[in-house]
């Protein structure tokens, strides 16, 4: 989970470099990520994995990650990567609530309080109606999609092997976004190609490792470890864009990370 949560922000960093510089649109970045990822996984996909497409739940799961990636790429086009990932972290709260209510996974009052504290940390970052950027709401929407996707990953962990689930997810998402991707093709260049491949590769590997983790543990227990993405996002934003969060965002990050670590410690 820690390796996966480092790779996913790196993929989004490549996407931000594409969209913020005007090299490509969020729609193209989202589509190319899924299409390239599907091609990378294809040689390792077991024969007959397309049988999973008969299950409507596989299509639902793919639509959730499609909406999440498109939304977060839209937010990253104008917002700092650390701010976007902090707002995005409504996702673990959504995943926690759905895992407990729909999957009937175990919980404790203290863990519920800590997840609520994490939600308050997200509000400090977004600050809806109090000076926060309107585009950060796309990051919140992405987090809602992603929280549902995390729970769906646990729900369907028994349906197929992680690589089978990864391939079908990438293939379906690429098909969903095909019209949007082809209608926004960027000018061909070495930098565009490198960033496009980097975005797809980091994202694909991160989500594949996430699937392996979710096949071995409950979603409500893994949800707090997803907060490690925040640390990676802050470091990447500082190293590449020389961007650091403002005071309220730092406070929100501290609340979110503290709540996540405390919740993770309860597993012990």
Automatic annotation (TrEMBL):
Transmembrane segments: 28-46, 58-78, 84-103, 110-130, 136-156, 163-182, 188-210, 222-241, 247-266
Keywords: Membrane, Transmembrane, Transmembrane helix
EamA domain mapped to chain residues: 24-126, 137-258
Pfam families in the cross-refs: EamA
InterPro entries reported in the protein's UniProt record: EamA_dom, EmrE-like
Gene Ontology, cellular component aspect: membrane
Highest taxon listed in the record's lineage: Bacteria
Protein name: Membrane protein
Organism: Phaeobacter gallaeciensis
């Amino acid at each position: 989970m820690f390796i996966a949560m480092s790779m996913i922000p790196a993929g989004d960093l490549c996407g931000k470099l594409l969209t913020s510089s005007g090299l490509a649109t969020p729609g193209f970045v989202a589509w190319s990520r899924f299409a390239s990822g599907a091609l990378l996984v294809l040689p390792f996909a077991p024969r007959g994995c397309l049988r999973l497409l008969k299950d409507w739940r596989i299509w639902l799961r793919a639509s959730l990650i499609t909406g999440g990636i498109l939304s977060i790429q839209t937010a990253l086009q104008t917002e700092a990567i650390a701010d976007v990932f902090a707002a995005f972290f409504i996702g673990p709260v959504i995943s926690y609530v759905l895992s407990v209510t729909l999957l009937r996974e175990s919980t404790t009052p203290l863990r519920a309080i800590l997840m609520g504290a994490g939600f308050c940390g997200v509000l400090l970052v977004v600050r809806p109606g109090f000076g926060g950027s309107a585009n950060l709401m796309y990051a919140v929407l992405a987090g809602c999609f992603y929280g549902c996707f995390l729970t769906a990953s646990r729900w369907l962990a028994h349906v197929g092997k992680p690589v089978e689930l990864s391939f079908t997810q990438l293939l379906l998402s690429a098909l969903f976004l095909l019209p949007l991707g082809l209608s926004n093709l960027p000018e061909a260049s070495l930098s565009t190609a490198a960033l496009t491949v980097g975005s797809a590769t980091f994202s694909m590997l991160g989500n594949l490792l996430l699937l392996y983790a979710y096949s071995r543990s409950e979603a409500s227990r893994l949800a707090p470890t997803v907060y490690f993405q925040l640390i990676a996002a802050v470091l990447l934003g500082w190293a590449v864009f020389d961007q650091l969060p403002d005071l309220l965002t730092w406070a929100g990050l501290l609340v979110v990370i503290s709540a996540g670590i405390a919740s993770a410690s309860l597993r012990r």
